[in-house]
Amino acid sequence: MNQPTSILRQIITPAVIVGALGYFVDVYDLILFAILRIPSLKDMGFSGELLVSHGILLLNLQMLGMLVGGIFFGVLGDRFGRVALLFGSILLYSVANLANGFVHSIEGYALWRFVAGFGLAGELGGGITLVTEVLPKALRGYGTTIISTVGVFGAVIGGLVAQRVEWRTAYFIGGGLGLVLFFLRLSVAESGMFKQLSAAPTQVSRGNFLMLFNNLTRFMKYLRCILIGLPLWCIVGILVTFSPEISGALKIQGEVKVAQAIAFCYLGITFGGFASGYFSQLLQSRRKILFWFLIFTALAMSAYFLTSGQSNGTFYLTILLLGFGVGYWTVFATIAAEQFGTNIRATVATTVPNFVRGATVPLTLAFNHLKPMCGIVTSAAAIAFACVFIALWALRGLDETYDKELDYLEPN
């Protein structure tokens, strides 16, 4: 009776709690903006083609903010500490979201969406880095599983809030949640591994982003970590975002709405995140779980494209399965953090998820390029399956990290 309680106490630490809540805020904001983009622009007086062009501008600036912020906060985390990363990230996000609620021009909206993306960029990677370093190696997978399960639930709350309150109020709620989390983080202690890193000789390079490119073996490992995450944002950015158009081409019976498709997808991701994390601990392997979840994703993709003439309920079910398949997201972030030494671990853990998110841009551009030549269904299928094959190739070259000792440094 005492052993499970003791293990649970080791897992449910302040680092795990604030990491989970940080990822919750991260996902909450992404879903919130996806739903509020059009209502907020309409309320500001825009209509017609401007809803599309301004919406793309805001989305691209948010993604640019996440890319730049991922590098900034990763370097910050490796040079000044994991806790400094988490404090800076959530404070900047909170201020930006409160400011989003006061904007009255597209210029102001664009600025604060960039700042919000910049601030959010450190949340997942910072939380994963801290948890992998403070928990015992046999239990850290449980910690990241909790982060995934609680965090993705932010999509559900974001969707509910966006549909029930005025758009400015929704942003104020997001900023308020961030400030509450900021004060909760006062209870979080710094990673012991980082403290040892701080005492290392000054010639040890910390948070040097260029170190990921000055060694071919290290660069390829970093690239593979990014590529195994492609299927998730292909599914969210193409198969879910364009589900009304794709379902029309498949002659699905009944209307398919993006908001409902997103809800089913993230519900699947929530269950998949828990399952992938739990079974990675049960099988004592990250690589095996990633492999089988990628295979499941490929099968779910096949089901999605074979729903021609079926009901919209069946189509939503395949989206739920797609979400479950790519629920390996936090295991993917964990294996990335575990691949590298303490002096660049936060840099890797924060940049890898944000570079994968940024890959949505070239994936959607490729989709739009192929669509006139191949049709919407064929082009979506070609890109989706290509992402899975690339991810499987990338996974082959990564080491197993389940029981890897993480207290080491990367050579300059």
Q: What kind of oligomer do you see?
A: single chain
Mean pLDDT: 89
CATH architectural designation of the largest domain: Up-down Bundle
What is the overall shape?
globular
Order of helices and strands: HHHHHHHHHHHHHHHHHHH
How does this structure look, described?
The chain is mainly alpha-helical and about 400 residues long. The protein folds into two domains: about 15-185, Growth Hormone, Chain: A; about 210-410, Up-down Bundle (Growth Hormone, Chain: A), CATH 1.20.1250. The chain has 19 helices and no strands. It has helices at about 1-10, 15-45, 50-80, 80-100, 105-120, 125-135, 140-165, 165-185, 190-200, 215-225, 230-240, 245-250, 260-280, 285-305, 310-325, 330-340, 345-360, 360-375, 375-395. The longest helix is centred in the N-terminal third of the chain and has 32 residues, at about 50-80. It is globular, with a radius of gyration of 21 Å.
Please supply descriptive tags for the structure shown above.
mainly alpha, 412 residues, 19 helices, 2 domains, Growth Hormone, Chain: A, globular, single chain
In short:
The protein is mainly alpha-helical.
Topology:
Layout: H1 2-11, H2 14-43, H3 49-80, H4 82-100, H5 106-120, H6 123-134, H7 140-164, H8 167-184, H9 192-198, H10 216-227, H11 230-240, H12 243-249, H13 258-282, H14 286-305, H15 312-325, H16 329-338, H17 345-358, H18 360-374, H19 376-396
Helix pairs in contact: 2-3, 2-6, 2-7, 2-8, 3-4, 3-5, 3-17, 4-5, 4-6, 4-8, 6-7, 6-16, 6-17, 7-13, 7-16, 10-17, 10-19, 11-18, 11-19, 13-14, 13-15, 14-15, 14-19, 16-17, 18-19
